[in-house]
Design goal:
single chain; alpha+beta; 5-stranded mixed beta sheet; 24 strands; about 30% helix; HetReg/Transcr_Mod
Length: about 625
C-alpha cells in the first residue's frame, strides 16, 4: 500500500555546486535550490513524506525517465497535497501572499464568465465593474514580486498544479496560502487591470507577469483534450529539454487523443514535433495545430523541422492567439503524409499578399498607435483606388479596417457579452474618432471607448504585420510574411494560412492569418446571407460558450450554419444529451453508434467533406508542404 505523500513543485535551479543531503543513511547530491527548500518544508516534531522528482527519478537513464514522465499525472493527482515552493521569504513575500489571501475572501471569481462575485457570507459588494482595487501600491507590488519568481516560468509546473487537488498550497519561506485562493485572486486582478482600468506602469507590470499565471487553472484538477491549445498555453514557459514542450503536457491531454504519444527521449526534437502533427491528423482529423507554425523572419535560419510542424522550442512572437475563427467551418482535415517531410493538404487558394506594413510602432505609445492606424487606413484607400477591378468603397474599407484592427473581436458576437471588447458600432465610432485625431491633441482627450479600442489594438496586433492583398482586402499575418505569399483556407483548420512558394511545386508554411471576410467559412460556402452572423452563446450546464448562428433581424438562433442545406443521402443527425449545443452526424446504417466514446462522437459535418464542397463549386486543390 502506497503511503500518503505530498508532491513538491519547485524550480530545480542550476546544477553547479550541488549540496549533499542524507536519505536512509546514504548521501545524495541535490541542487542548491532543493537543499534550500528542505529546511522550510521539514516538520520539527513528526515525519513528512515528500515526493520530489529530482530524487525519485534517475534523470540520466533516458528509458526510465520516459517511463516516469508517463506516471507524472498519477503522482501529482494522487498526492495528498501539492506544495508550490516559490523559494525563501523576501522583504515583501508575506505581504504578497497575505494580499492574495485577503482578496480571495472578498470575491468568488467565475473564469468562464470573467466575472467576480462577493461570497454570500461576507456580503462585500465587489464586482469586476468596481473602479478601485482597495489595496495600496505596496501590496500590489508585493504580489507582482511573487509573480516574478522563477517557478511561474517553468513548463513542468503547468501539469503539476493543474492536476493537483483543492488542498494544494503555494509557499514562500514559512508563509503559505491555498493555491485556489491565489489563482482566483490573480484572475480577479487581471480583470481589474485590463481595458479601461489597465492604465499605468503598475497594471502593465502585473499583466506582463500574469501571462505565466493564465495557463495554470483555477485550483482544481483539470483534463484537456486540445493539444494545440495546451502548446499555446505553455508558449512562454521555460524548460531545459525542448522535447518536454510535448512530453510535459501529455498528462493533460484527453487519453483518447494522447494514448499513442509516449515520451521517448531517444528521438530527436524534430521527430517529436513532427510526430505530434501526424498524430493529431490521424486521431482527430484536424490540422488546427498548423496555427502554431511561425516562420523565422530570416529564411536562412529555417530549422530542420518541416515548416508544417510547429517549432515549440521557439517562443511565440504573439501576445494573443488568433482564436474565435472558423474559416473552414466544422470540417475535418483532408491531408496525407507523403514521407520525406512532405505533407499534402487540401483547401482553397483565396488571395495573394500585395503590400505589407509593420506594426511595431503600435507598442511605442498610444499616440504612435493612433498615427499607425491612420496610416494603415490611408494605405487601404490608396490600394483600392489603384485597383480598377476593386469594388470596395469607402464604407466597406472602413468596416474591414475596423474589424481587422480589433481582430473582429466585438461584444456583439457573444451572448452574454464576454470580456471588455467594444461592440462593432463602438469600434466604428472609435475608428472615426482616431481618423479625426490631429497632432497635438492628447490621448486622454478621446472618449473611453476609443481609448479602449486603441489599447486593444496594441496587444492584438503584437508580433504581426498588416497586409493588403492584390484584390484590396486587408488582414494580419506573421511578421515574416512577404509580398507574393498566398493566403489559403484549409479544410480542418480554423484560421486562414499563409504559404510561400519554395520552388518545385512545394510550399512552406509562414503562419496563420486574419483575412477580413474569411473567418466564417466564406472560402468554402460563400458569404452568409444578410442578417445572419456567427456568434457564441453561453450554456449554464456546460459552463462554456458554443458556436451558433443568429439572425439579427428575427432574433432566431440556431446551431446549424444556414448555408449548408440538406444532409447527403445516408446521413442523419443523432440525438444526444447536448443536442441543443452541437450536432452529431452519423450514417443511418451505423450499428456502432452507442459504442462510440464521447471523444469519437465529435464528427465533422459531411456537407463539408471535399466531394460535397466540390459539388458546391468550391475550388479545392492540394498543396504540398515541406
Amino acid at each position: 500500500m502506497i503511503p500518503e505523500y505530498e508532491a513538491l513543485s519547485y524550480v530545480w535551479g542550476p546544477p553547479e555546486h550541488p549540496k549533499h543531503i542524507y536519505i536512509d543513511g546514504s548521501t545524495i547530491a541535490v541542487t542548491r535550490a532543493l537543499a534550500e527548500a528542505l529546511p522550510y518544508l521539514r516538520y520539527k516534531e513528526q515525519p513528512r513524506t515528500l515526493w520530489i522528482d529530482a530524487i525519485c527519478v534517475n534523470q540520466e537513464d533516458l528509458e526510465e525517465r520516459g517511463r516516469q514522465v508517463e506516471k507524472m499525472a498519477a503522482l501529482y493527482t494522487c498526492a495528498k497535497r501539492v506544495i508550490v515552493w516559490l523559494g525563501p521569504e523576501s522583504t515583501d513575500s508575506d505581504l504578497g501572499l497575505q494580499t492574495m489571501e485577503s482578496l480571495s475572501m472578498k470575491i468568488s471569481f467565475d473564469i468562464e464568465k470573467d466575472l467576480a462575485y462577493p461570497p454570500i457570507q461576507t456580503g462585500v459588494p465587489w464586482t469586476v465593474q468596481d473602479p478601485i482595487i482597495p489595496y495600496d501600491e505596496q501590496a500590489i507590488k508585493a504580489v507582482i514580486s511573487l509573480l516574478k519568481r522563477p517557478w511561474f516560468e517553468r513548463l513542468w509546473i503547468v501539469q503539476e498544479i493543474r492536476l493537483a487537488n483543492n488542498k494544494a498550497i503555494i509557499q514562500a519561506g514559512h508563509k503559505s496560502i491555498l493555491w485556489a485562493n491565489f489563482i482566483s485572486s490573480s484572475y480577479y486582478l487581471r480583470s481589474k487591470f485590463q481595458g479601461d482600468k489597465g492604465d499605468g506602469i503598475l497594471s502593465s507590470e502585473f499583466l506582463k507577469h500574469y501571462l505565466h499565471v493564465q495557463p495554470l487553472g483555477l485550483g482544481k484538477p483539470q483534463v484537456f483534450e486540445d493539444l494545440q491549445r495546451l502548446t499555446w498555453d505553455i508558449r512562454n514557459t521555460k524548460c531545459t529539454d525542448p522535447r518536454d514542450r510535448v512530453y510535459g503536457i501529455l498528462s493533460m491531454v484527453h487519453k483518447s487523443s494522447a494514448v499513442e504519444l509516449r515520451p521517448d527521449y531517444t528521438k530527436s526534437v524534430g521527430e517529436v514535433y513532427q510526430e505530434v502533427v501526424l498524430h493529431i491528423l490521424e486521431r482527430s482529423k484536424n490540422l488546427r495545430i498548423l496555427a502554431r507554425c511561425e516562420m523565422a523572419e530570416d529564411e536562412e535560419k529555417l530549422s530542420r523541422i518541416p515548416s508544417w510542424a510547429p517549432n515549440f522550442a521557439v517562443p511565440s512572437r504573439y501576445q494573443l492567439a488568433l482564436r474565435d475563427m472558423s474559416a473552414a467551418g466544422d470540417s475535418l482535415a483532408h491531408a496525407r503524409y507523403l514521407g520525406d517531410g512532405v505533407l499534402g493538404v487540401t483547401g482553397v487558394r483565396v488571395t495573394t499578399v500585395a503590400s505589407i506594413y509593420s506594426l511595431t510602432s503600435a507598442s511605442d505609445s498610444e499616440t504612435s498607435a493612433i498615427k499607425l492606424i491612420q496610416h494603415l487606413v490611408a494605405a487601404s484607400f490608396e490600394a483600392a483606388t489603384k485597383n480598377p477591378a476593386s469594388e470596395r468603397d469607402e464604407k466597406s474599407i472602413l468596416r474591414a479596417c475596423c474589424r481587422t484592427f480589433n481582430r473582429n473581436l466585438f461584444l456583439d458576437y457573444w451572448l452574454p457579452p464576454k470580456g471588455r471588447y467594444p461592440t462593432f458600432p463602438e469600434g466604428q465610432k472609435a475608428l472615426d474618432n482616431i481618423l479625426n485625431w490631429r497632432e497635438g491633441e492628447s490621448f486622454q482627450g478621446l472618449d473611453q471607448s476609443t481609448q479602449r479600442y486603441i489599447r486593444y489594438f496594441q496587444p492584438l496586433t503584437a508580433g504581426r504585420a498588416f497586409f493588403i492583398t492584390d484584390d484590396g482586402n486587408v488582414g494580419l499575418a506573421p511578421v515574416s510574411v512577404r509580398i507574393g505569399d498566398i493566403i489559403v483556407v484549409l479544410i480542418g483548420v480554423d484560421s486562414p494560412m499563409v504559404f510561400r512558394d519554395a520552388g518545385n511545386g512545394v510550399l512552406r508554411v509562414v503562419g496563420e492569418a486574419y483575412l477580413d471576410g474569411f473567418t466564417t467559412g466564406e472560402a468554402l460556402l460563400g458569404n452568409l446571407e444578410d442578417g445572419w452572423v456567427r456568434m457564441s452563446r453561453f450554456d449554464e450546464e456546460t459552463m462554456a460558450y458554443w458556436v451558433a448562428f443568429l439572425n439579427i433581424v428575427t432574433g432566431e438562433i440556431q446551431i446549424e450554419d444556414p448555408r449548408l442545406g440538406t444532409l447527403p443521402d445516408g446521413w442523419k443527425i443523432q440525438g444526444h444529451k447536448e443536442e441543443r449545443l452541437w450536432n452529431w452526424f452519423v450514417r443511418e446504417d451505423d450499428q456502432e453508434i452507442e459504442k462510440q466514446s464521447e471523444f469519437e462522437r465529435w464528427g465533422s459535418d459531411p456537407r463539408l467533406a471535399p466531394e460535397f464542397l466540390r459539388k458546391r463549386g468550391a475550388p479545392l486543390e492540394e498543396f504540398m508542404l515541406i
